[in-house]
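Notebook entry, structure prediction.
Reason for the run: the old model in the group folder had no record of what sequence produced it. Starting over properly, with the input documented here first.
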Amino acid sequence: MSPGVAVRTRGQHDGHWIRDRQEGTSVVQLGLIGLGKMGGNMAERLRRAGHEVVGYDHSPGKRDVESLPELVEALSAPRVVWVMVPAGEPTRSTVEQLGELLSPGDVVIEGGNSKYTDDQLHDVMLREKSIGYIDAGVSGGVWGLENGYALMVGGTKEDVAKAQPIFDALKPPSPEDESGQAMPGAGFVHAGPVGAGHFSKMVHNGIEYAMMQAYGEGYELLAAVDLIEDVPGVIASWTQGTVIRSWLLDLLVRALQEDPGLDRITGYAEDSGEGRWTVEQAIENAVPMPTIAASLFARFVSRQEDSPTMKAVAALRQQFGGHAVHAVQAQEAERPA
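New structure, fully documented this time:
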């Protein structure tokens, strides 16, 4: 749809036309595949901005259309279709199907957490059909509906321009400088060619691993000593005026408010792939990343109820120094005879 055309947008849940856009406003259509926690909120944020979203999901209760062919048929050319499904085979299969359904001049945006090398393969496949491809690293989680999503995209300038109204609606409002003028660039970046978006998000998530690990270790030390009587209060005090304040710290405060001793959860942390890929790229490019690497390995440790490594360490300490070890059954300290 071109700017200056008055259109009506359909609400996600009630199926009715709910809003008119005024003439002179840039309004676009978007096909969105994957309406889970992230995709569903993104669709809602776009609709609130006045854009038309046609959504498809495997779950019948969430979708506007019943199939990918029906989704493509519902969109006006040139089409923009955003894929928001799990990385790996689900994404590859969806992109391949879209390659058979879309037309030259259409654009596919891949907004999951795919590895950047997968994006480059998808781009080659679609370019053969004159279909554009953009990889979009998306950060914001379940809070993105209200706060906006940070977007890191890769693709050609022409393809990014076609989708720019979508990106503008999804990203957070631009902060203002001291004079009250909007500061451009915050929350969105065209990072480079295809692959650059997800590479940027990969590094972003590697940094996130390290920050979360540091906060977690600090929390554990505070909780381990009798001297600190208000651990949640100390964490909360860091959110204003300190150099370590961040949104992640705000979220830790929220978690401690809901569960002050974190007694309702186990210390098991998955890694979704980006941390591993970041460390792999650090090795390939000879970039030292000891902190991010350590935070990745700490997640592996979290999955071991009784770490084989620490069993070996305890056994070695016993052998060379006669240090006490803890018996598995009795849980009592014993010394070698």
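Summary: The first strand starts at residue 8 and ends at 10.
The old model has been moved to the deprecated folder.
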